[in-house]
Amino acid sequence: MADIATAIPAAAPAHEVRAARLSAFVRYTLLTVVGLIMLYPLIWLIGASFKTNSEIFGSIGFIPREPTLEGYVKGWETSTPYTFGRFFWNTFLIILPKTIFTAISCALVAYGFARFEFPFKRFFFATLIATLLLPNVVTRIPQYILFRDLGWLDSYLPLWVPSAFAGDAFFVFMLVQFLRAIPRDMEEAARVDGANSFQTLIHIVVPMLLPALISVMLFQFMWTMNDFLGPLIYLSSVEKFPVSLALKLSIDTTEAFDWNRILAMSVLALLPALIVFFMAQKYFIEGISAGGVKG
Amino acid sequence: MESPRIGLAYLAPYLIGLLVFTAIPFLGSLYLSFTDYNLIQSPVWSGMDNFRELMNDRTFMRSLRVTLLYVFITVPLKLAFALFIAVILNYRLRAIGFFRTAYYVPSILGGSIAIAVLWRYIFADAGLVNMVLTGMGLEPVNWFGDPVNALFTISLLRTWQFGSAMVIFLAALQAVDKSLYEAAAIDGANKWHSFVHITLPLITPVIFFNLIMQMVQAFQEFNGPYIITGGGPLKSTYLLPLYIYDEAFKNFNMGYASAIAWVLFLIIMVLTVVAFWSSKKWVYYAGDKRS
């Protein structure tokens, strides 16, 4: 394990080197064991989705003895008139506008907070922090009544519209923190050259803000993908269900013992989030560290 | 030149949203909590009736107890785990990026219904966990049949997602000035002393942040119990958000549901205020680093 040795200052006495190597060994072992325990359920899930129903509760191992696609084929069909393809498409229909609205509205608001002085600015920023801590549970019922009165029930509007009004305070907060750390020189130069604040935003600020905006969009993607309660409250026709609701429906309607269908569809439900995460994990880690630490 | 007040124009989406989707609903649910409202007839003022009823509502009392128990188990467990792993990762390990990713994956997927489904399977009577236990010669555990175990199984699900708290801890740990440790080592401090007297005080702001965020989140847990246990057995995992959901969206008792929501909100608020108030005593802010 050469990489452990490099972590130790060269001039250390022999017994310290030995102690450091031992403790590095303990640490790696601990991390690996805990990591395996943590990831094994996911690995098992993937393996089990290719197992026959009789094997799922029969072995600890994840490699199927007789691999089968039965779970995927039958699960995809569902017990509704629609396939899971429809539910993935619905999820996409919810996510796409929501992500775009979020990025635009949060960028505008963060720009306002980070670059301008105006009356009640401190008060408004305080409300932002308060919303961050405000449990949704206390606003949910009147929101439902509002959307019902607008005739928006059983449509995607209740899921889309709040995001056009910077509905997730966390993202505004994250972008404000990010903007505060960016020097204003280029913006001031642009203003001197006669650009107005909106042109400055589009041509100077947005390009610099892009990494943070990508983080925001990725987080919104994940959260919306995983959102269950929102669709559960607002959507009632099966044809409009996103994947999360369809999965719950398939648990309720699938006959007992048809476990592999549900597991297979669970794998598919996790797949988009996993792919996006592995393609862009740096944005997640940076986003969450920035939002959390600089506060 | 434009007036700096143009900033207010950029804030417009937020201010409209704040009013329409947050402030008015917030006050609206306070009003509804003093009414009877079934969505068909208009709300009827009933004064303190809902709250008086709550005091005698055994389902509510049980649900409240279970919710508090759940939060007080889950939050410390999750934070302790997140900090422990972050401290280990913070040593100069080569594979830090790999481990950080591995530990973060459950957090990313965690809210998904698919994970709750997975939990149902691996903690089933003949599920993965019990197979491992019997394989090691231990007694299988009735995870969902026993009230205490069932709540703990859901706690475990959320503890399993310690990744995002860990990433925040790790970023804070990496920001600690290394020369402080060297100075302490010269003064004869061992690793444990350095951790208690240097690391912990310096990361208290982040501990505080994680504590508040995880607490607010835990009080609103819905997906886990809804999918995994359905609130059972014997209502042992029937957390307040489930009760609110049933009252509001199944029984359409909007007034009563709002009253429960407000009790939950007040509990969260009191605990948050206590945390903020106590933070003056234990959270350390270095100089004027905050901009």
Automatic annotation (TrEMBL), chain A:
Residues 88-280 form the ABC transmembrane type-1 domain. Keywords: Cell membrane, Membrane, Transmembrane, Transmembrane helix, Transport. InterPro entries: MetI-like, MetI-like_sf. It is found in: Cell membrane. It comes from the Bacteria. The chain crosses the membrane at residues 28-47, 87-111, 123-147, 159-179, 200-223, 262-280. Its main location: membrane. One of its GO terms (biological process) is transmembrane transport. GO terms for cellular component: plasma membrane. It is a multi-pass membrane protein. PANTHER family: ABC TRANSPORTER PERMEASE PROTEIN MG189-RELATED-RELATED, ABC TRANSPORTER PERMEASE PROTEIN YESQ-RELATED. Belongs to the binding-protein-dependent transport system permease family. This is Carbohydrate ABC transporter permease. It comes from Paracoccus gahaiensis.
TrEMBL record, chain B:
PROSITE patterns: ABC_TM1. It is a multi-pass membrane protein. SUPFAM superfamilies: MalF N-terminal region-like, MetI-like. InterPro entries: ABC_transporter_permease (IPR051393), MetI-like (IPR000515), MetI-like_sf (IPR035906). The chain crosses the membrane at residues 12-34, 68-91, 103-123, 150-173, 194-213, 256-277. The keyword Nucleotide-binding does not apply. The lineage of its organism: Bacteria, Pseudomonadati, Pseudomonadota, Alphaproteobacteria, Rhodobacterales. Belongs to the binding-protein-dependent transport system permease family. GO terms for biological process: transmembrane transport. Keywords: Cell membrane, Membrane, Transmembrane, Transmembrane helix, Transport. Residues 64-275 form the ABC transmembrane type-1 domain. It holds the Pfam family BPD_transp_1. One of its GO terms (cellular component) is plasma membrane. The keyword Transmembrane applies. This is Sugar ABC transporter permease. It is found in: Cell membrane. Gene3D superfamilies: MetI-like. It comes from Paracoccus gahaiensis.
